[in-house]
Amino acid sequence: MYTDLARNNMLDGIGATHLSAHTAYSATGANEVTGGSPAYARKAVTYSAAASAAKAASTNPVFDIPTGTTVRFIGFWTGLAGSFLGMIANGGSENEFKVDPTTDVFTVPAHGYADTQKVVFYGDTVPAGLTEGTVYFVRDSTTNTFKVAATSGGTAIDITAEPGRKCVVSAIVEEAFGAQGTLTVNAQTHRLDA
How far is CA 114 from CA 131, 140, 150, 169, 175, in A? Predict the structure, then answer.
């Protein structure tokens, strides 16, 4: 187990200085928004020093998003033209989970999801029956468990194998732009658990 000091040092060493907006999940930074007037561009972000194994953004970047675009993920970069570090679901928070392939039930303590809420799985091999980065709908939710469907109110998806250990589930907000607009990324906090 790492101390808070060690976790703080790891968080401060991540080095994300810019954010990007994406239409779909990618492990490489692909599917980034383009175009518009004013034109879309990556935005700088600053973070406070890590404390108590958490590091909070101290700025709320605002992106110009072109007509006809749906933003689903936010990417992290080491600079305006730097290296891609990863992405998170827009408006979500990542949760570790367990799944029972015999019942198709996912377990996330106090997840807060409600039936018909949109979720996405990513970060490692997803449970067999799902596709990484695809938006699914919660069904049969209880305080700590839920199933997922391909459509709102649809049939639960048959899960046939467990995921990779780094796979996470997250709520996701799909921001659709029928006209040129702006997307504000509210300050996020990154944590390293023990």
Answer: 21, 8, 15, 14, 19
Radius of gyration of the chain (CA): 17
- State the first-to-last Cα distance of the chain, in angstroms, to the nearest integer: 6
* 145-194 pLDDT per residue, tens: 999 999 999 999 999 999 999 999 999 999 999 999 999 998 666 666 64
The number of residues in the chain equals 194
Residues 6+ apart with CB under 8 A from 182: 62, 63, 64, 65
Q: Where are the alpha helices (DSSP H) in 14-122?
A: none
**What is the predicted pLDDT for the residue at 78?**
93
Query: SS3 for 43?
Result: strand
The token pair at 14 is 């991540």
Task: Flag residues of the chain having pLDDT under 50.
Answer: 194
- Please name the residue ranges forming H helices in the chain: 4-12
Which pLDDT value is given to residue 38? 96
12 burial level (CB within 10 Å; 0-12, 13-18, 19+): middle
pLDDT at position 192:
63
Are residues 48 and 58 in contact, defined by beta-carbon separation less than 8 angstroms? yes
